Amino acid sequence: MPVAGRYALAGLMAMAMLGLGGIARGAGAQPTAVEAEAPAVPAGRLRFDIPRQPLQSALTQFHRLTGQSLLYDDQIAEGHMAGPLQGEFTPEAALHRLLAGTGIEARYTSQAAFMLMRETVPDGAASASAPRDNGMPDKAAMQAYYGRLQARVVAVLCGDPKTIPGAYRLALNLWIDAGNAVSRVLLHPTGDGARDARIRHLLHGLALPSEPPAGLAQPVTLLVLPRQPTQTGDCKAAP
């Protein structure tokens, strides 16, 4: 599926959903991380018997059966129903069926983890049916902003021995407040609890170099891939 607003810089990828909801959701929203308590089962076909129920409950049942962990802002699940789902499916196929019709899509962040987000609009889809001056974010401005945001996050991660990219995969959501700082951080576990806590500490409250373009939908999703900085050049200035 195409991703609107995807912009890559070395080992770090930023994804945002353009034109699908404006600036940050209410401060009372609580993010959800349904984390695997045991190694995920192989991604073969499994038997599912999930009755129709609220989406968040169905996602919890999906996790218990598959061991796949889920990362999402629980506001996107509110008001949606899922199921029934009966039959044999791979975990990925089952999750897509549970999300069908909800306006939510799932993306792999690792072999045993998904990030859920609002569906994105393919490039050109909006412009084909709406005038140019329609309040949609400017793509070039968005990509430039992603580059600045990525550079800021990379510099912070590279500047701490506990968080230097390269040996781990990181998927996280960032919310940016009106003061142009990171107000919320939600991340998938990297496999090291101390490192996860350090990443949250470093990024929460982080001042950003410029204001986001008008229309930036939140959260912004970042993926840090497990590639050595010598390959990506991400940490050239790191101590």
Verbal overview:
- With 239 residues, the chain is α+β, with helices and mostly antiparallel strands.
- It has helices at 55-66, 91-99, 139-158, 193-203, 229-232, and strands at 7-9, 12-15, 31-34, 46-50, 53-54, 69-73, 81-82, 85-89, 104-110, 113-118, 170-176, 182-187, 220-224.
- The chain has two domains: 7-20 and 135-232, Fusion Protein Consisting Of Minor Coat Protein, Glycine Rich Linker, Tola, And A His Tag, Chain: A, Domain 2 (2-Layer Sandwich); 31-118, 3-Layer(bab) Sandwich (Phage tail protein beta-alpha-beta fold).
- The chain has five helices and 13 strands.
- Helix 1 (55-66) packs antiparallel against helix 2 (91-99).
- Mean pLDDT is 73; it is low at 1-31, 35-42 and 122-134.
